[in-house]
Design brief:
globular
């Protein structure tokens, strides 16, 4: 007697477990992505050898300078800089492996001593990154992040406008500590997908304005929320490190004051323009279609049990650290030291008969070492680019060729560079790679014209995390597209409008708002 085939259980759109990242389908690489990966390695090797072996011929600006001797180092630095960017952009190799190769080649060709190259791993921003990941893990391990998400969502009473405001608040809160935007997506996606299903949006042929906005708005809030905080993304930390290397250190409070209000404004604009105009929600879609959605969220909250002392301790530590970060310009304690102290507390076991202060063990900490190794290579690259001044020399030469002088309106230079920075997101998934390319250019431009580095570059840092237009622009964008709640055109229409609008707003923000905060950012 033949066995009866097992019946596959029907998909339950209100089950939060169905929206775990491992349950989402994989998106195969496109034809062009495969081709880029195929040519990435030989193209990178060719780019390096083209300059390192002087196949390019003599470069006047390199040979004429007197700061770096021998001048051949500038050729090697240019070749390695271009080769690393090719590998990072084409993703022909894992980004962490490219970074390790960059470090090895940097030492072998004499661009840096091995002591200086290895010391980049101990940069203050690296310590801040590691400590932030430890504290972010405390929010997740204790269940506080999930409890906060479910509680605020349920408080909205399924009012759509209130729900979108709640998600803005949540993304801003988590942006302070969780610098991995994909981790924030994993945390909140099950919740907003259940909400979308409750309103009848289960994806595919059952899409509606609620589902489109739930996913695309959260994608926007996630990335924009990361822009508000120095610790919001690894690329933010890289930008801050490059400004500090140029003699313009940015305090946590300085970054927060300049960009948090702008992040809130962009999120609110995104909510209003998206739900009212770009991706309008029909009146009939504003009424819940599936019963039980709210109850599922309540059951999930109930399963967490009563709030634990560990959650309370994690929340208190979170608030104290955030408070000290926001006031670092007052008390003078560096953000890295505060973060490390916070990490010590969340890991502190019971000792000497005293109760336990910490909330987790070391093995509970979710530290993405591959991303930190990637950052290490980026810092090494940034260090030799700064010491050789290859970007500054090249930029000065280009400015002379193009006729860009001190008489050129600052607002024109700022606007063009902001637009280029924003549009580079359409061709590169890596925020770090874009920052490596753009920030040396921005800093060199400010130095060339005698402009204040922080006043010119800090508002530009807001463009780092504008990575939401197309599905391949970032990992959260890729994950969001896999929910099947919207089309490529809808994503592009919503995203490109937000990107171009914030570029325009940024000009007026630098001109009129930041000077009121004490920044030398006026453009005319």
């Amino acid at each position: 007697m033949s066995a009866v085939p097992a019946v596959k259980p029907a998909f339950d759109p209100l089950d939060l477990k169905n929206y775990a990242l491992e349950k989402l389908p994989e998106l195969p690489a496109g034809v062009w992505a495969k081709r880029l990966k195929l040519i990435g390695i030989p193209l990178a090797v060719l780019a390096f050898l083209f300059f390192h072996l002087h196949w390019c011929g003599p470069i006047g600006i390199f040979d004429a300078q007197t700061k770096i001797k021998p001048a051949t180092l500038l050729y090697s630095a240019t070749g390695l800089f271009l080769a690393s960017l090719i590998l990072w952009i084409t993703e022909a190799l894992p980004n962490y492996l490219t970074s390790l190769i960059v470090i090895v080649v940097t030492v072998l060709v004499g661009l840096m001593t091995y002591q200086n190259a290895f010391a980049q791993l101990g940069q203050p921003v690296m310590i801040l990154n590691i400590a932030s990941f430890i504290m972010a893990s405390a929010l997740v391990v204790t269940g506080l992040a999930k409890r906060l998400t479910l509680t605020l969502v349920l408080k909205s009473g399924l009012s759509l406008d209130k729900l979108f405001i709640v998600f803005i608040i949540l993304n801003l809160i988590f942006g302070a500590f969780i610098s991995a935007t994909s981790a924030k997506t994993a945390l909140m996606l099950p919740v907003f997908m259940v909400i979308a299903a409750t309103f009848g949006a289960t994806g595919g042929d059952k899409r509606n304005g609620v589902g489109r906005n739930m996913v695309l708005q959260n994608l926007l809030y996630n990335n924009v929320g990361a822009s508000a905080f120095l610790t919001g993304s690894a690329a933010n930390l890289l930008a801050a490190q490059q400004m500090e290397r140029a003699g313009a250190p940015v305090a946590y409070a300085t970054w927060l004051m300049a960009l948090l209000p702008l992040a809130i404004i962009q999120c609110v604009i995104g909510w209003w323009t998206g739900t009212r105009w770009l991706l309008p929600i029909k009146e009939e879609d504003k009424t819940p279609k599936l019963e039980g959605g709210v109850q599922r969220l309540k059951d999930e909250l109930k399963s967490l049990g009563p709030i634990s002392t560990a959650e309370i301790r994690a929340g208190i530590i979170f608030l104290i650290v955030l408070g000290l970060w926001a006031t670092d310009s007052i008390h003078g304690i560096r953000a890295e030291v505060v973060a490390l102290a916070g990490a010590c507390v969340v890991l502190m076991p019971a000792a000497m008969g005293l109760p336990r202060l910490g909330v987790m063990k070391w093995n509970d900490a979710d530290i993405p070492w591959h991303m930190l190794i990637f950052s290490w290579g980026a810092y090494v690259l940034g260090a030799f680019v700064d010491s050789t001044n290859i970007v500054g020399l090249t930029l000065d030469s280009l400015f002379k060729t193009w006729g860009i002088t001190a008489a050129t309106p600052k607002v024109l230079v700022f606007s063009v560079m902001a637009l280029i920075f924003g549009l580079t997101t359409l061709v590169s998934e890596s925020k770090t790679a874009r920052t490596i390319i753009m920030f040396p250019i921005l800093i060199a431009t400010a130095k060339s014209f005698g402009w204040d580095i922080i006043g010119f570059c800090l508002p530009m840092a807001f463009m780092i995390n504008q990575v939401y237009v197309l599905y391949y622009n970032s990992k959260p964008a890729n994950i969001s597209y896999l929910t099947n709640q919207y089309s490529m055109w809808e994503s592009f229409k919503f995203g490109i409008f937000q990107l171009l609008l914030i570029t325009v707003i940024l000009v007026f923000w630098a001109q009129y708002v930041m000077p009121l905060m004490g920044f030398k950012s006026a453009l005319w």
